[in-house]
Structure formats: structure tokens, C-alpha cells
Amino acid sequence: MSQKMLLASKEMNIILHRLACQLIENHNNFENSVIIGIQPRGVFLADRIHKILKEEYGISGIKMGQLDITFYRDDFRRSDKPLEANKTHINFVVEDKRVIFIDDVLYTGRSIRAALTAVQSFGRPSEIELLTLIDRRFSRHLPIQPDYNGRQVDAINEEKVKVNWKENEGEDAVYLISKV
Amino acid sequence: MSELSVNHLLGIKYLKKEDIDLIFQTADHFKEVINRPIKKVPSLRDITIANLFFENSTRTRLSFELAEKRLSADVVNFSAASSSVKKGETLIDTVNNILSMKVDMVVMRHPNPGAGIFLSKHVGASIINAGDGAHEHPTQALLDSYSIREKLGEVSGKKVVIVGDILHSRVALSNILALKLQGAQIKVCGPYTLLPRYIKSLGVEVEPNLRNALEWCDVANMLRVQNERMEINYFPSTREYVQLFGLNKQLLDSLDKKIVIMHPGPINRGVEITSEVADSDQAIILDQVQNGVAIRMAVIYLLASKIKQQ
Hints:
The structure holds 2 protein chains of 2 kinds. Chain A is α/β, with parallel strands linked by helices. Chain A has helices at 9-27, 42-55, 110-118, 166-169, and strands spanning 2-7, 33-38, 63-67, 98-106, 127-136, 148-153, 159-164, 173-178. Chain A has a 5-stranded parallel sheet, with helices on both faces. Chain A has a 3-stranded antiparallel sheet with strand order 1-8-7. Chain B has 11 helices and 9 strands. Chains A and B meet through loops of A and helix 1 of B.
């Protein structure tokens, strides 16, 4: 197994700030917008973006939730490993809200497909956007594209893109891991 | 652990502590789901479940059916009263006929102890025991423990007294096994005629006096006197039973701590507990019912995830 660093802490920081600014461009003060991190790994990115918006751009009171998609996945009983659920925490109704999904890596698009179904349990949003840190292009199984994108990466199926976070892994970095 | 060690839920006897932990963790997620504006997830949309009730039930049957529907499974219901069982069909024939219509899972209640175990050896579907005679009622025991965990934080180390008709109660046996597995202390309390002879071999103590039992415990699980399973009189009169083993407000208030009151239902108000107690804030009877759906969703989901894709 070998790994190659795609993004280091400094580059990640610049990208996170850019993504935050792009959100502000479209959502102003987030009056009618909500941020939803996709469990498990999108939650770290959502927290980080939320923190930048609050601390560096002074936009407070943004509603943020965490959405688990386990029960909406299309590979139940099809994958070798049993699916493990995570916590969903959305204490607001998304009815008529502008929803921003946040996930770390966009790969096949199936997670986002599941999230689109899952979020309907909390109401009918007026629109849904997608923000991802890494877009693994040319590997989509479904017609789903990000609205805000950190970095595009070309990787083959045997490779894995792993996003590390200071809060969890002790460093901010993105790695391309190949099994060979 | 992320997978159950069993392919059927026939009784608590066959479960490990880790299985119970996994069921509870999964039930936590489903409890959140059933409190959403839209209470349904699509996980089991390609699974068909047959509910076979060879004995009457309201709560358990509704609870299972709701759990199945909230997981998006297809559901068929069967009750013995209106079926060919009356014409002399055997259990295996009945179930195999149903399974040949491509059913993946069977939830069964049956008056004979061991009916689920018997069935699991002869048919190819995943079986959930929803009560077999006076033997086991595993989902009830799981939801009872889950309700204790929710109310008191954990089950381990808690003192639980089970009061009433232990002899005819599948809830009692499953509860004792489940609570033991999780490290709770258990006493049983009731007329000696309604305590099984070898009850102590399960590692529980017998306390014949209700007041002493209540003063000792954190949780009291008040069972119903199952008149329908009694061919002879086990105690002189209902009035005497109420005086010795009925829980009323006066007795409850005279204790120096606030204990948790549970009841698996259906309640005989005025017999094992009075209306005042059943409706008091110490009773978690309706929480038990709500948790029942989440627990059953968890059990069905976890067992379904072990059914291989065809």
C-alpha cells in the first residue's frame, strides 16, 4: 500500500476559505439557508466551514445539522460488510429552506442520492446544493455534480481518497491511497 | 460488532451481551427516525415479512406491523382464527405454503413453547419469536431493558423486581435472561403457587413480601395475572391477590425513593396496579410501547441484513 499527499494543511485552509466565500456569495447572511453535513465524514467539513463563516466572516446563527444516510443506501444486503448507522441530528424543519449538503469526497454519487431521499423526511426544501472538498471526476454512477468544489481529482477505482482532519486524525491533509 | 451472532431471534437465551448492545445502538437510530415528521426509511423495500399469529395479540402485533412498515417491508398478516389451521393443516405445511410465495422473514406468536425453534429447523426463512406459550418473548424483554437503559442510564447494576404471575409468563423468563446478561440484579415476587419451582436456578432471588421487594428495587415490572392460562385456581381470590401483590399509590408513596414502574400490558387496572399508579409519572408503560417499535425495527433490520441477496 502506498500513499501520496494531494493537499497539505496550508492548501486545505485556502480551499476552505474559498468555499466559505463562495457560499457567502450565494447565500448572503444564510437567513433562509441551512448546512447539512453528511455522516460520517462530511460532518467534519461542515463543522469547519461553519466555524470559518462564524469566526472569520461574522455570520452567526447558521442552522447546521448532521444527516445519516445508512437506512437510505441502495446497497443494503449487497455489500460484504454490514452497514453501520450514525447519528442524525437535524433539529429544524427544512421546508422551504435552501439546503447545502456538505460531504468530503464525491465519488459515485450514490451517497448523495441517498441523502436527497433522506432529507425529504424533514420537509420539502426549496433547493438543495452540494459542496464537496474532493470531486473524484470520471467515476460517477449517477448524474450528480457539486455546486461548490475544493479540488478535482482523477483516481482509478482501486485507489482511495482519504481526507484527514485535525480534530480526528491529528492533521489536515488529503491522501491518495493505492492498494498496490 | 456490527452484525448479530444469530440468524433468528428465537429467545434471549441464544443472544450474547454484544448482540443486545448492537440491537440497542440500532434502536437509538430508529427511535430518532420514528420521531421525524416522516417516520419511514426505505431499507427493507425488497423484503417481505409474514406475521403469523396463532394466539391473540394487539400490542405486539401492531408494534411489529408498524416496525415493518416503517422499514418499508411488504407485510402479510395471518391469524389462526381465520385460517386453514382450523382445517387441520400442520405448522410446517402452513409456513412452507406461505414461504413458497417468497416471504423472507416470519414473525410468529404461538401457544406452544418452542414453536419458533422447531420452525427454524424446518423452514428456510428468518424467524422472530413474538411469544411462544409460557417460554420466551424476546422483543418484549429487549424493549423492557431498553426502557430501563433510557430511564436510568444503564441496566448493569440496577435492581429489578418482577412481580406477579411468573409461572405463566414468557415476559418474566425473557426479562430474567436479558437482565442477567446485562448485569442487573433480579428478584421475583408473587404467590408461591405462581413461582416456578426451579426459579432460583436462574440466579434470581425470591421475595414473598411486596413491600420489601419494592424497598429494595430501582425498577418494578408488574406482570399481569394470566387467567387465560390457568386451568385451576392458583390463589384464593382476586381480592386477596390485590391486597398482597397489587401496587397502589399509597404503597408507592410510602417508599423512601422514586422507583420506576413498568408493565408489559395489557393492564388489569385495579389488580396488579391501580389506575393512579399506571397513570403516574413514575410509570413508563407508554414509553415501553413506543420503544417497542424502535426495538422491533432494530431486530428486523439487523436480521434482514443477514439474509443473502438472491
